[in-house]
């Protein structure tokens, strides 16, 4: 067939849409996306024919196949679920905390109908979106008042801007930390309109350092809990109660940014020693801020608890509207807080807390089950074995020194095969599986693999291994 005849044989987009295959594609992905994909597929075929390639025997089937591959690829390129096999529980790149089923259902229930986000149903008047969360925060934490905003960095900036703008804020040099994404505490203070006054040394700051720095323009002492790093060795810093006493004697505010937001005593469950908002308030902090999507185990948000007058100033500040949370965040957070009212229930139902506190025996059983299945189903030359060590992490800037006992499946490909290639194919596959590579082995850490994901994980690993094995055979 000559080039012109081959080009004329290409089907029209309208004709393709009228086929059974085209109609199925439209039902799945919509008319606009399918039409665009069909046009792109025809353009590719047209260019190939002009370059001298023979057209496929079944042009209709081939064009629709290419269009389907295109729309499916674009659908996968957006936000989609990932199986976290890294052993990092609060993995920032993978969305941090996974919502409890109760929280996910609360979001679904609220989003599919109108709701009372800012409506007082009894009075029939406008209300505040903060009311849905504040009573729960007061009950669980014992805080006088509370509010929720978009994230913790925004909450800290709002607190400083509302309570200390134009005045000095004292902070230890050892706490001038950088948060993920290159956001640094000095820049947050500057953007809030406050004047940074750093005291002490990187490793040691004394109460007298704070006392000497106080002047008539000082508004607050800020404590940034070093949740994503530790200074060890020859180091010291005043306690919250000591700083609170100093601040209150001199008429200043003590603001503490806790970061991680653990609302239950994790140390009692064998996981680190993370301070809680309850302990900070009890020690005399006027305002405490923390994240909702780290050790609290809920959605992305920043929470402030403390004196009612300070919380009210934050709510009324013009910047508060720019960082307010929506109905989905409030729904997920309230459901998560309801679970946290019972620490045992929280550790059972909130995925982040469950992963952090799950006994090693249970994690090992899951790993052994996965390894046994893989040993049976992987192609010849692949090996799967269970390794027990202390390589799991909390992650997300929480408890940086804490190593958790875990059990992982180490998958070793045949000699000559590239483990990095296997890891990449798993990441871009469907389902996507995020793994670690260590000493030539693909590491599947069972601590962060949920039981309902096991079948999907095994299928994905086996499929990628079979594809790798087939490619090696053909070469």
Q: What's the quick description here?
A:
It is built from 20 helices and 17 strands.
Layout of helices and strands, plus pairs?
Blueprint: H1 3-8, H2 13-18, H3 20-29, H4 31-50, H5 59-77, E1 82-84, H6 101-111, E2 119-120, E3 125-126, H7 131-141, E4 145-149, H8 152-164, E5 168-172, E6 178-179, E7 183-184, H9 185-191, E8 195-199, H10 207-213, E9 218-224, H11 240-249, E10 253-259, H12 277-282, E11 287-291, E12 302-306, H13 308-316, H14 318-322, H15 327-340, H16 343-349, H17 351-357, H18 360-377, E13 383-395, E14 398-412, H19 419-428, E15 432-434, E16 436-438, E17 441-445, H20 454-474
Helix pairs in contact: 3-4, 3-5, 4-5, 6-15, 7-15, 8-13, 16-17, 18-20
Can you describe this structure?
The protein has 475 residues and is α/β, with parallel strands linked by helices. 46% of the residues lie in helices and 19% in strands. It has helices spanning 3-8, 13-18, 20-29, 31-50, 59-77, 101-111, 131-141, 152-164, 185-191, 207-213, 240-249, 277-282, 308-316, 318-322, 327-340, 343-349, 351-357, 360-377, 419-428, 454-474; strands at residues 82-84, 119-120, 125-126, 145-149, 168-172, 178-179, 183-184, 195-199, 218-224, 253-259, 287-291, 302-306, 383-395, 398-412, 432-434, 436-438, 441-445. The strands form 5 sheets. The protein has a 7-stranded mixed sheet with strand order 4-12-11-10-9-5-8, sandwiched between helices. The chain has a 4-stranded antiparallel sheet with strand order 13-14-17-16. Strand 2 (119-120) and strand 3 (125-126) form a beta hairpin. Helix 7 packs parallel to helix 15, helix 8 crosses helix 13 (308-316) and helix 16 crosses helix 17 (351-357). The mean pLDDT is 92.
